[in-house]
């Protein structure tokens, strides 16, 4: 089955930070893929902007190289590539200076179409960009801005950032990206939850034993050491990505699938989260790989901070104090240099109240697993009889709800999270973007946890590279009579 591609209206997209890593790795390849799919009209305009002194030809060459490196999987001929490059131009602009702004304002004059400004730069520049866009008359009602994470590093800074942006743009014009929300499976999760009668009656504390959300990475901190050591796994991953996934799993059915209805429900979940107790948290820092310390240094060496107390791993248990979820634990876990790269949400249902089968027949729980990467998909573990003679023995088999084969969906239909979110920006659909109050509520929950560590001078426990994190994490589960799902690629 070929998916329907509905072209977006012509637009102007300015990428501030157009020479940066994110633009080259995600934004430009994403736009190119949508162009090849026929979704981006050829009279759209893409303007790269940064301080680097380049002309448009030089920038197009840079984009060509970025696409060769990060868009290798995109099947497109040279003519199509040239057509895409023709849409692109470059302006040297300093977010903090006067260079380039008059030229940009002139370029944007009077087209009467959607103007999007992607702030793919350090958050320290968001205010400068917003202020100059307004000063030069580009912050009009047809314009929208896209801002990247991190959105603040605590509640106070997030409030300040929200207040700064609100001086120049209405909330309806601000698109805060969390690329986890752009993943196909995350949206499929909502379709499965709210498009079927089957699950919703069971989706509560009476039938769900617990929920696990794991985002495991095999990479270390890489070149992001300076930023990461100030953030840690809690700020870098839990406050945003894991929190968003938790919201989608736990929220009440919104009245409509529209931006404010969905985001109102997510906000209620965040506001219902209990504070996390210190013994419901396991923090870790990865050790060096014995015998390969040069390529796989310890966290502290990687960030060049021998006494760092920042966590590269965190596991925690939290509860949602509302009628639906009271008593059901939600376990969140994320870390670097773990056994496999894997992001998965798992809903583990309770045992049947009574087994009619012999004790040695075996007993399994239903497990709904929503896998975000790699191999996006949703499976439901169901119990059936093991085929063949030999009496009644029960086995657990996965029911694949991705139906990739049945739908004939293959790699060519693949839509990356970034490209989906960029087309949503152009269409003016904020459903998959975080609202300012959501971000603030998430920080309000996160801040006391981090302040607690700081007050106690908490030191993360070491863990081996390629493991499932420190033993504290396993212990936390064992105390509850549960275990983490194995992290598998
Ligand atoms: P980067 O590689 O350091 O790029 C920064 C960009 O900003 C460059 O194009 C730089 O170009 C431009 N820039 C710096 N100062 C400027 C100024 N005064 N005026 C105009 N442009 C300026 O950073 P990045 O990795 O692309 O990240 C960009 C944003 O996305 C950050 O907020 C980051 O946290 C976020 N993010 C990145 C990733 C990722 O995978 N890279 C993932 C999630 C979020 P010039 O030096 O030429 O000015």
From TrEMBL:
<feature type="domain" description="Glucose-6-phosphate dehydrogenase C-terminal">
    <location>
        <begin position="190"/>
        <end position="485"/>
    </location>
</feature>
<feature type="binding site">
    <location>
        <position position="217"/>
    </location>
    <ligand>
        <name>substrate</name>
    </ligand>
</feature>
<comment type="similarity">
    <text>Belongs to the glucose-6-phosphate dehydrogenase family.</text>
</comment>
<feature type="binding site">
    <location>
        <position position="51"/>
    </location>
    <ligand>
        <name>NADP(+)</name>
    </ligand>
</feature>
<comment type="function">
    <text>Catalyzes the oxidation of glucose 6-phosphate to 6-phosphogluconolactone.</text>
</comment>
<feature type="domain" description="Glucose-6-phosphate dehydrogenase NAD-binding">
    <location>
        <begin position="14"/>
        <end position="188"/>
    </location>
</feature>
<feature type="binding site">
    <location>
        <begin position="17"/>
        <end position="24"/>
    </location>
    <ligand>
        <name>NADP(+)</name>
    </ligand>
</feature>
<keyword id="KW-0521">NADP</keyword>
<dbReference type="InterPro" id="IPR036291">
    <property type="entry name" value="NAD(P)-bd_dom_sf"/>
</dbReference>
<dbReference type="GO" id="GO:0006006">
    <property type="term" value="P:glucose metabolic process"/>
</dbReference>
<dbReference type="GO" id="GO:0050661">
    <property type="term" value="F:NADP binding"/>
</dbReference>
<feature type="binding site">
    <location>
        <position position="149"/>
    </location>
    <ligand>
        <name>NADP(+)</name>
    </ligand>
</feature>
<feature type="region of interest" description="Disordered">
    <location>
        <begin position="459"/>
        <end position="489"/>
    </location>
</feature>
<keyword id="KW-0119">Carbohydrate metabolism</keyword>
<dbReference type="GO" id="GO:0009051">
    <property type="term" value="P:pentose-phosphate shunt, oxidative branch"/>
</dbReference>
<keyword id="KW-0560">Oxidoreductase</keyword>
<feature type="active site" description="Proton acceptor">
    <location>
        <position position="241"/>
    </location>
</feature>
<feature type="binding site">
    <location>
        <position position="236"/>
    </location>
    <ligand>
        <name>substrate</name>
    </ligand>
</feature>
<comment type="pathway">
    <text>Carbohydrate degradation; pentose phosphate pathway; D-ribulose 5-phosphate from D-glucose 6-phosphate (oxidative stage): step 1/3.</text>
</comment>
<dbReference type="Pfam" id="PF02781">
    <property type="entry name" value="G6PD_C"/>
</dbReference>
<feature type="binding site">
    <location>
        <position position="183"/>
    </location>
    <ligand>
        <name>substrate</name>
    </ligand>
</feature>
<dbReference type="InterPro" id="IPR022675">
    <property type="entry name" value="G6P_DH_C"/>
</dbReference>
<dbReference type="Pfam" id="PF00479">
    <property type="entry name" value="G6PD_N"/>
</dbReference>
<feature type="binding site">
    <location>
        <position position="336"/>
    </location>
    <ligand>
        <name>substrate</name>
    </ligand>
</feature>
<protein>
    <recommendedName>
        <fullName>Glucose-6-phosphate 1-dehydrogenase</fullName>
        <ecNumber>1.1.1.49</ecNumber>
    </recommendedName>
</protein>
<keyword id="KW-0313">Glucose metabolism</keyword>
<dbReference type="InterPro" id="IPR019796">
    <property type="entry name" value="G6P_DH_AS"/>
</dbReference>
<dbReference type="GO" id="GO:0004345">
    <property type="term" value="F:glucose-6-phosphate dehydrogenase activity"/>
</dbReference>
<dbReference type="InterPro" id="IPR022674">
    <property type="entry name" value="G6P_DH_NAD-bd"/>
</dbReference>
<feature type="compositionally biased region" description="Basic and acidic residues">
    <location>
        <begin position="475"/>
        <end position="489"/>
    </location>
</feature>
<dbReference type="InterPro" id="IPR001282">
    <property type="entry name" value="G6P_DH"/>
</dbReference>
<feature type="binding site">
    <location>
        <position position="179"/>
    </location>
    <ligand>
        <name>substrate</name>
    </ligand>
</feature>
<dbReference type="GO" id="GO:0005829">
    <property type="term" value="C:cytosol"/>
</dbReference>
């Amino acid at each position: 089955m070929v998916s329907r591609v509905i072209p977006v209206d012509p637009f102007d997209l300015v990428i501030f930070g157009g020479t940066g890593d994110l633009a080259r790795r995600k934004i430009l390849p994403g736009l190119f893929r949508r162009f090849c799919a026929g979704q981006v009209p050829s009279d759209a305009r893409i303007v790269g902007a940064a301080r680097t002194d380049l002309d448009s030809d030089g920038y197009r060459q840079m984009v060509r190289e970025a696409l060769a490196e990060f868009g290798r999987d995109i099947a497109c001929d040279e003519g199509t590539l040239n057509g895409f490059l023709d849409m692109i131009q470059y302006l040297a602009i300093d977010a903090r200076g006067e260079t380039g702004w008059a030229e940009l304002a002139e370029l944007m004059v009077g087209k009467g179409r959607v103007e999007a400004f992607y702030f793919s730069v350090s958050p320290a520049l968001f205010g400068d960009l917003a202020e100059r866009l307004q000063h030069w008359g580009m912050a009009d009602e047809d314009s929208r801005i896209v801002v990247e994470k991190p959105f603040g590093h605590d509640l106070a800074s997030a409030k300040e950032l929200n207040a700064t942006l609100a001086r120049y743009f209405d909330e309806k014009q601000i698109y805060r990206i969390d690329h986890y929300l752009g993943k196909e499976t995350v949206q499929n999760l909502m379709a499965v939850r709210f498009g079927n009668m089957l699950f919703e009656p069971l989706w509560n504390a009476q039938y769900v034993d617990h929920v696990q959300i794991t985002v495991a990475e095999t990479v270390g901190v890489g070149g992001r050491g300076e930023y990461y050591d100030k953030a840690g796994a809690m700020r870098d991953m839990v406050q945003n990505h894991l929190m968003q996934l938790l919201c989608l799993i736990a929220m009440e059915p919104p009245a409509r699938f529209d931006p404010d209805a969905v985001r109102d429900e997510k906000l209620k979940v965040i506001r219902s989260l209990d504070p996390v107790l210190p013994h419901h948290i396991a923090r870790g820092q990865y050790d060096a790989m014995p015998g390969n310390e040069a390529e796989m240094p310890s966290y502290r060496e990687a960030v060049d901070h021998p006494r760092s107390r920042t966590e590269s791993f965190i596991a925690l248990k939290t509860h949602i104090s509302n009628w639906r979820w009271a008593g059901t634990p939600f376990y969140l876990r994320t870390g670097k240099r773990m056994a496999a790269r894997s992001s998965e949400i798992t809903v583990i249902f309770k045992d049947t109240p009574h087994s009619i089968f012999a004790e040695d027949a075996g007993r399994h729980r239903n497990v709904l697993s929503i896998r975000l990467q790699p191999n996006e998909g949703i499976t439901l573990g169901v119990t059936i009889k093991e085929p063949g003679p030999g009496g009644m023995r029960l086995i657990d088999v996965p029911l694949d709800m991705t139906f990739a084969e049945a739908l004939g969906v293959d790699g060519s239909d693949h839509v990356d999270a970034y490209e989906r979110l960029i087309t949503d920006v152009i269409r003016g659909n904020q459903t998959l973007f975080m609202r300012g109050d959501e971000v603030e509520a998430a920080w309000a929950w996160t801040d006391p946890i981090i302040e607690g560590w700081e007050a106690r001078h908490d030191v993360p426990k070491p863990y081996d590279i390629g493991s499932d994190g420190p033993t504290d994490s396993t212990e936390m589960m064992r105390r509850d009579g549960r275990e983490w799902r194995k992290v598998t690629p």
